[in-house]
Design goal:
Layout lengths: L5 H6 L9 E6 L2 E5 L5 E7 L6 E8 L4 H16 L4 H15 L4 H12 L5 H19 L9 H13 L3 H20 L29 H12 L5 H13 L3 H5 L6 E2 L4 E4 L8 H6 L3 E4 L2 H14 L18 H10 L9
Antiparallel strand pairs: 1-2, 2-3, 3-4, 5-6, 6-7
Helix pairs in contact: 4-5, 4-7, 5-6, 5-7, 6-7, 9-12
Amino acid sequence: MPNLTEPACKNATCPPELKRKRLSDGAGLYLEIAPNGSKRWFWKFYPDGKESRMALGSYPDVSLKSARAARDEARKTRQAGVNPVQKRLADKIVSNTATATTFEAVAREFHKLRADTWSPSHADKWLRSSENHLFPHLGTLPLDSIKAPALLAVLKKAEAKGILSTAQDLLSMAGQVFRYGVQTGRCERNPAADLRGALKPHVPENFAAIVEPAKAGELLRAIDAYTGQPTTRAALMLAALIFQRPGNVQAMEWAWLDLDAALLTIPAAAMKRTAHGKLNGRPHLVPLSTQALALLRVLQPLTGHGVYVFPSARTGERPMSNGTMNAALRRLDFTGDEHV
């Protein structure tokens, strides 16, 4: 016969000299009361002859009646030869996996897994491109329901806008997501692999370059007179002073800088290298001129409280985007893709 009643559960207390007090209801079910007044249900059973217990929830969120029902269900599982604690854990894993089978959920999971091995600018670009081009059309679809024609239709939208390199990049990114989905059991095959040759090839063009001293001087004077965001102007000026890739300038972190030693140390993981080079390569050392140091010291009170030297204007949690600097150059009547 059960020993507990609802009033007994409600009024139960634990003396301060005890660590825990247990009130048994029979068949292994008991209510454990702590000195602070918290109460939790447990079911005690003996797998392999050793005592174990299964948490059934807190009282009064789980009533006495509900606790007994949970105990009875656990006993049935045990009588079937299955450890109910292990079954609960397995069910939770299956449930979590089932809720993360959409394209967007798997893509964000993959991005989170790999972002630490990418440069900040690449990680940011990967996610933004997915949010702008892939998620609006594929995000809510189960990964295993997306076939090659559906993926191709999305990529053709980018191709129709004339951004052939973006379409190719999106195909590569989608392929990464589907491969990860295959590896984690969320889909059976990678439809991106069937689209090889389905997009117009992107023919790389040489970057427009400023090679004439007079033209370079014109650009520097234009940057000096720029009246937009101070951080954007500073990024353009610093790019001209240290001759590093735009992505490394935009993603620069204050932790990379030693102003007293006049040195910028770019971690290997942030450089444009192979995966092996990112993980095992040496950092890239950039000596800083007096002009670069002066610029950074002026900038430090503005952005030095955050991670990035040039944070995004919308959120300080991300670095400045490549589009910000290009837009500023276009505003100065330069194409935005010219290299000094």
